[in-house]
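B., you asked whether I could sanity-check this one before it goes into the benchmark set. Here's the sequence:
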Amino acid sequence: MPYGQPYGEPLQQQQPLGPGPQTPYPPYPHPQPGYGYAPPPPALRPGIIPLRPLGLGDILDGTIKLIRSNPKAVLGLSAVAALLASVPVAVGQAFVLDSMSGAFTDPESAYTSSDQLTSVYGLAAQYGGTLVSYMVQFVVVTLLTGVLTRILGRAVFGGTITAGEAWRLVKGRAPALFGVVALMAVIMLVPLVVMVLLIVVVALNVSSGAAGVVLGLTFLFMIAYLGYYLFFTTRFAFASPIVVLEGRGAIEAMRRSWHLVTGDFWRVFGILLLTSLLVGLVAGVLSVPFTLAGTLFGMFGAGSVATTVVSAVLIALGGTLGSMLTYPFQAGVAGLLYADRRMRSEAFDLVLQTAAIEQQRQGWVHSSADELWHPSNSARP
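And here's what the prediction gave me:
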């Protein structure tokens, strides 16, 4: 019997102390899902990307925002570079198509000496135009990549920069940019030349019935070279952004790019490969109609000067439209991937966030933001 209960009286049922149907006070509300949990605030986003480690969607979205935030500088410069690179190829192809027009109207005339000579001139024009186009791309696209990277470096903080100002900041880095492209060309061409020479030597020293051996060896070399090409283009993908944003030399920039890619090679490789496929698809959709129209116009035209000119214009227009988006998109993805790798490996997002808060307090993006990309500002150098 409980202490204090009168003898002979029935026991009084005590009230439950916890929640229940007989609780004299309202039950305490149960916590709802997520109750008491405060989600972290969204990452600071003063410009084209959030200042935190980036995902694939952030990188693609940031590249699109880069183009939209400064279309005059980005698309205008890209269009000029694409046009300069497309015109030599278009002129060469137009001459080839003009030389082939006689074969469609009169197939028997294609075997005459004059038509053969015209065909030789057309092929020379085509390959000569391609060679000139590569030379133009070496110069123009290299400088364009540097200018676009400088525009991107300011756009991360929400600032804009004119094409003229970007060029003034980049022109001092032009020798290092050309050095990176030249070293990459050597890295890519030397194994290719060795491969071709080996195939020629093997072909000259085997019997005529062993053509299958030569073809099989060629196929194996091509597969090996493809892997070689993809490996080194991924390893040195950040060399140009490093030259422009960090102010390093060509060899030092390539060494640092190798270091930044280490530990995240497959992710960098996958994003770059996916970007190339997406950009190639979009460029094809834009350029194929004009290229096809120019090809058909040149092949079935009357062979006059006007036909050749119209064909060249259509082909050049198709190449320009395709490359006008290819150049800034690839440069933007490479630059944002470089920023992402620094955020992940060097805690660079903390540096960017601190600088962005200060710039927001001041109310504008100062040109001194360009200095923040130097590696001495990394939180974990």
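One thing to flag: Residues 113-155 form the longest helix (43 residues). Otherwise nothing jumped out at me.
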